[in-house]
Amino acid sequence: MPKLQDKGLLKTDLLIDGGWHSARGAATFPVHNPATVDLITQVAQGGRTEADAAIAAADAALPSWSARTAKDRAAILRRWHDLILENAEDLARILTAEQGKPLAEARGEIAYGAAFYEWFAEEAKRVYGETIPTPDPDRRLMVQKQPIGVCAAITPWNFPMAMIPRKAAPALAAGCTMVLKPASQTPLSALALAELGQRAGLPAGVFNVIPGKASEVGDALVTSPLVRKVTFTGSTEVGRHLMARAAGTIKKLSLELGGNAPVLIFDDADMDRAVEGVIASKFRNMGQTCVCANRIYVQDGIYDRFVQTLSTAVSALKVGDGTATDTEQGPLIDAAAVQKVEDHIEDAVSLGGQVTAGGKRHPLGGHFFEPTVIAGGTQDMKIAREETFGPVAPIFRFKDEREAIKLANSTEYGLAAYFFTQNNGRIWRVGEALEFGVIGVNTGNTSYEGAPFGGLKESGLGREGSHHGIDEFLETKYLCIAGITG
Ligand SMILES: NC(=O)C1=CN([C@@H]2O[C@H](COP(=O)(O)OP(=O)(O)OC[C@H]3O[C@@H](n4cnc5c(N)ncnc54)[C@H](OP(=O)(O)O)[C@@H]3O)[C@@H](O)[C@H]2O)C=CC1
Ligand SMILES: O=C(O)CCCC(=O)O
Fold first, then answer.
1. What's one Pfam family here (predicted)?
2. How far, in Å, from the CA of 290 to the mean position of ligand 1?
3. 336-367 pLDDT, tens digit each
4. 98 given a catalytic annotation
5. Atom 2 of ligand 1 has which residue's CA nearest to it?
6. What is the span of the domain harbouring residue 137?
7. Residue 434 and residue 294 share a domain
C-alpha cells in the first residue's frame, strides 16, 4: 500500500452520480504492484448494471453542465488542476505503486496530466462559432459549436494520470459529461483523480468512474444509445473491436492506438543528441509507450559507432523498484509483457540479431527486464513489424535517405516517428515524407498539452491536446435564419 499524506486519495469504490458505491454483490478485483507482485488492494468491480447507472447519471447531469457558462466550467477545471499539483506527491506514489514507473517519471506524468486541465479550462472560453456571408439578403447564416453529449472514455494502464485528463479535460470543458472505464491494472490513479475532481466542485454525474470488466463495462459504453462519443487509448486490436461495436449507434470516435515508431539516424546527426534522444524515447516508461521508438534505423557511416555508444549507455541504466531514488527503469506491467519482450528477442536472435546490451530477465526477478539493444536487425523480425512495448532497442542499417523513408513508412501504423540530422534541407524533406502524426526532429520527446497528439493509418482517429483536442467533443450546428427584411 503506498504511504500517503492524504489517505482519502486511495479510493476503491465506483464513482456514480457524485457518490462512491460498491459493486453489485460486493464484487471486487485485485490490483497488484508490478515491482513486488504484491497485492495493493481490492477495487470494486463494476459490470453492465453499474455502467448503465453511470451513463444515466451522466445523461441526467448533461443539461445543467452544458448550460453553465464556459467560464464557470473553466473555474472548476482550474481548481482540479491546482488540486492535482497540490497532491502531486501522493498521486505519484499511487501511480508508481500500481504502474511501476520510477517516481521521477511519475511526477513528470502528473504535471503533464494536470496541464490538460489548465489548457482546456482556457480553451473552453474560445469555442467560437461563425457567421457566413449570406447569399440571400433576407437570410443570415451562422454556425454554432455545441457539446456532443455524454462521452465514454476507455483508458490504458501505461499513463493513467495523463491519458484520463487528456480526455476528460476537453470533454468537460466543451460541456459534455463523461463515464470513464480505466484499465484494470491501474484503477487507483483514476479514482484518485476523480476524488480530486469531486473536491474541485464537479457537480454530481458530470464525471463517473467504473473500473471493472472490460467485456461488460466497455461494451455497455460503446453500445449505449445515450453515449454520443467514445474516446479510447489502447491496442489497435481493441480499438478495431470498439469501432465495430460503436457502429450500431453511429458514435463519434477518437482512437489513440498502437504505434511502431521508427527512428532514422543519418550520418550527419549529432551522435550525443541521437543517443540521448533514442534513450528518452525508447526507454520512457520501460518502453511501454505508444510513441516509443520501436525500430532504430542507422546510416552505414555511423552504424558501428552508434551501436557501441548506445549499448554502453543502455547497459548503465539503473533498474529497480520505482520508489528507489536512483531507479531509471522500473518493472514491466505484468508477466505477459515480459513474455512478449522475451519472444521478440528470441525471434530476432534466431534470425541473426546480436544482443549488445541486456537481453534477459533481470536478476531482480518478477516483471523486471534488462534494458536491451539488438544490432543486426532485419525486416523479417517480429521486432520490426510488431510493437514490442518493452525495453528493447533493435538497430537496423540503411544506405541512403530514400531507403530510410521507405523502411520507416513500411508499417500499417502511423503514430510517431523521429529522425536525427543536422541538414536543414533533409529536415524538410524527411519531415514531409514520413507518414506519421507526430514527428520528433533531433529529439525523442515531443509531448506537450498544447501540441496535437494522434496517429495516421491504423494508429487511430482524431487528435488529443492542443486547440484541436476540444473539437473532438463538439458538434457543428448550422442555423439558417430567414425573414430578416420583414
Ligand atoms: N496506445 C497505447 O497507448 C497503448 C497501447 N497498448 C498496446 O496494447 C497491448 C496490450 O495492452 P492492453 O493493456 O491489453 O491494451 P488494451 O487495448 O487491451 O486495453 C486498453 C483499455 O481497453 C479496455 N478493453 C480491453 N478490451 C476491451 C473490450 N473488449 N471492450 C472495451 N474495453 C476493452 C481495457 O480494459 P481492461 O484493462 O479491463 O482489460 C483497458 O481499459 C500493449 O502491449 C501495447 O502494444 C497498450 C496500452 C496503451
Ligand atoms: O498513449 C501513450 O502511450 C501515452 C502517450 C504519452 C504522451 O503523450 O507522450
1. Aldedh
2. 12
3. 999 999 999 999 999 999 999 999 999 999 99
4. no
5. 234
6. 7-257
7. yes
